[in-house]
Write a structure and sequence with these properties.
mainly alpha; single chain
Length: 389
């Protein structure tokens, strides 16, 4: 598609690889400790020994030896729920299903532990490595449709979009970012069987990616009739994996997570007890409407909105010369980059309705897709202008 010099492409390639390595070593040398590191460590170690007291002692004693005094106190003192989990082995172990549900992420941590790596360092290595590898995967997915010079912009996007924060903390969102990149790669290259395999497995990376599977299924049903059957089989297989994983790890379900995050404001303990509470319509509406105002203060989300808006405007002007919005939408399905951007917008909307929080770590993959989509339409515009001259 592009007629750029081979040298510039190699420079972009080297720059992305160097940036990924730089981000990795920065994340490992400057980690951020959040409570999730305890949850993932407990999930990993409980696979081999599920004794409540053993898991509790292993995690807290191990973290005390690993972290600074200030870091240890920040996760055990000052907040009532943290203090309860620190003192009560049963309450702490009840938190494990929230984390073990990200089974692939947990198994990667356990794998490093088996190689002799400290479990907390292993957790940071996995999170940092997946995030930085994600940058490479997105590069290989989009490199043929974006001008090589524009790739110099992408690493700086890491900081302002929240992707760098994901690499510094222990979170399965790093795996979701990496896996979203793989899905984009398969879609852009039209490797359909590989794409559907990635979609089926995606719910093992982070269960809410089932929404993304549903969106791709809808796209193929509407616009790719030759692949409808394969898409439907993929969706059904994804649902099967979803229910099996939830059952195996004893996950509490949507209402329990919703209650924890938006009714108790992340302060509830003993989920076995409050898992039976459910969520009322009033509580749901209050969470959805009450958190809307936070959108206007979230820089990564606003940046995503800007990239999507600019994409739409540039594509509308360049492809349709001022045609109707409906004509523009009909043309989008023929352009894989824009399909990914549109699906990302819908994904954010549906995700918010299911879990009304605009936490950047949930959407770093979609934010990257938004930026790359903008760079794509600018590349196309520049090419058209050059040809017209």
């Amino acid at each position: 598609m592009l007629n750029n010099s081979r040298n510039l492409s190699w420079v972009a390639h080297g720059f992305i690889i160097a940036s990924s390595l730089l981000f990795f070593f920065y994340a490992i040398s400057s980690p951020t400790q959040n409570w999730d590191i305890l949850g993932y460590a407990a999930s990993a170690i409980s696979i081999e020994n599920a004794d409540e007291n053993y898991v509790h002692d292993y995690v807290y004693q191990g973290f005390k030896a690993y972290a600074t005094d200030e870091e240890f106190e920040s996760l055990t003192v000052g907040k009532k729920d943290d203090e309860i989990l620190f003192a009560d082995a049963n309450a702490f172990n009840q938190e494990i299903p929230f984390y073990k549900i990200r089974i692939i992420f947990v198994l990667l941590i356990l794998g490093l532990v088996k190689l002799g790596v400290n479990i907390f360092l292993a957790s940071h290595i996995v999170s940092a490595a997946l995030t930085c590898a994600g940058l490479l995967v997105f590069y290989y997915a989009y490199r043929r449709v974006i001008h090589p010079a524009f790739w110099m912009i992408v690493p700086f996007f890491f900081q302002i979009s929240g992707i760098l924060d994901v690499s510094q903390t222990v979170t399965a969102d790093s795996l979701a970012f990496f896996w979203t990149g793989l899905i984009c790669f398969a879609f852009m290259q039209a490797h359909w069987r590989l794409l559907f395999l990635f979609l089926v497995l995606s719910v093992m990376m982070r269960t809410d990616m089932i929404v993304l599977v549903a969106l791709f299924t809808g796209y193929f049903i509407l616009f790719q009739p030759d692949l409808r059957k394969l898409a439907i089989v993929s969706m059904l297989a994804s649902l099967g994996v979803y229910f099996v994983v939830n059952s195996v790890v004893g996950n509490y379900g949507w209402s329990t997570v919703f209650y924890l995050a938006f009714v108790s404001n992340m302060t509830a303990t003993h989920p076995v007890e409050y898992s039976s509470f459910g969520v009322t319509i009033e509580q749901y509406i209050s969470a959805v409407t009450g958190n809307l105002k936070l959108i206007f203060y979230d820089v990564p989300f606003l940046l995503f909105g800007i990239t999507i808006t600019l994409q739409a405007i540039i594509f509308w002007l360049s492809q349709n010369k001022g045609g109707s919005v409906w004509d523009t939408l009909l043309h989008i399905h023929k352009t894989p980059v824009l399909v990914l951007s549109l699906l990302s917008v819908i994904y954010l909307l549906l995700h918010y309705l299911l879990f009304p929080a605009i936490w950047a770590r949930f959407f770093v993959g979609q934010y990257m897709i938004g930026l790359l989509g903008l760079l794509f339409v600018v590349t196309v515009l520049i090419e058209k202008v050059s040809i017209s001259k």
